[in-house]
Amino acid sequence: MSSRRSRASVSEEEINELIARLQTLLPSARRRGGSHASTTKLLKETCSYIKSLHREVDDLSDRLSDLMATMDHNSPAAEIIRSLLR
C-alpha cells in the first residue's frame, strides 16, 4: 500500500511574498535597504538571527534568575517582576 501525503499548493508568487516579508524582519536585511539577497542567503541569515535571539533570551533569563535570587521575595520590586512574568 502506498500512502500519499496531501501537500498544500503554494504558488511561486506566494513564496516570493513570504520571502520579501521575512526580509523586512531581519536587521541585516533592513540595513541593506532595498537590495535583495538570494533566498538561500536570506534563509541562512534568518537561522542565524533566530539562534542569536535564543541566546539573548537565555542570557536575559539567567540574569533575571540571578536578580530574583538576590531580591527579598516580599519586596514590591519582586512582586512587580512576578506580575510581569505572568
TrEMBL record:
<keyword id="KW-0805">Transcription regulation</keyword>
<dbReference type="Pfam" id="PF23174">
    <property type="entry name" value="bHLH_ILI"/>
</dbReference>
<dbReference type="GO" id="GO:0046983">
    <property type="term" value="F:protein dimerization activity"/>
</dbReference>
<dbReference type="InterPro" id="IPR036638">
    <property type="entry name" value="HLH_DNA-bd_sf"/>
</dbReference>
<keyword id="KW-0341">Growth regulation</keyword>
<dbReference type="InterPro" id="IPR044293">
    <property type="entry name" value="PRE"/>
</dbReference>
<keyword id="KW-0804">Transcription</keyword>
<protein>
    <recommendedName>
        <fullName>BHLH domain-containing protein</fullName>
    </recommendedName>
</protein>
<dbReference type="InterPro" id="IPR011598">
    <property type="entry name" value="bHLH_dom"/>
</dbReference>
<feature type="domain" description="BHLH">
    <location>
        <begin position="1"/>
        <end position="53"/>
    </location>
</feature>
<dbReference type="GO" id="GO:0040008">
    <property type="term" value="P:regulation of growth"/>
</dbReference>
<dbReference type="GO" id="GO:0006355">
    <property type="term" value="P:regulation of DNA-templated transcription"/>
</dbReference>
<comment type="similarity">
    <text>Belongs to the bHLH protein family.</text>
</comment>
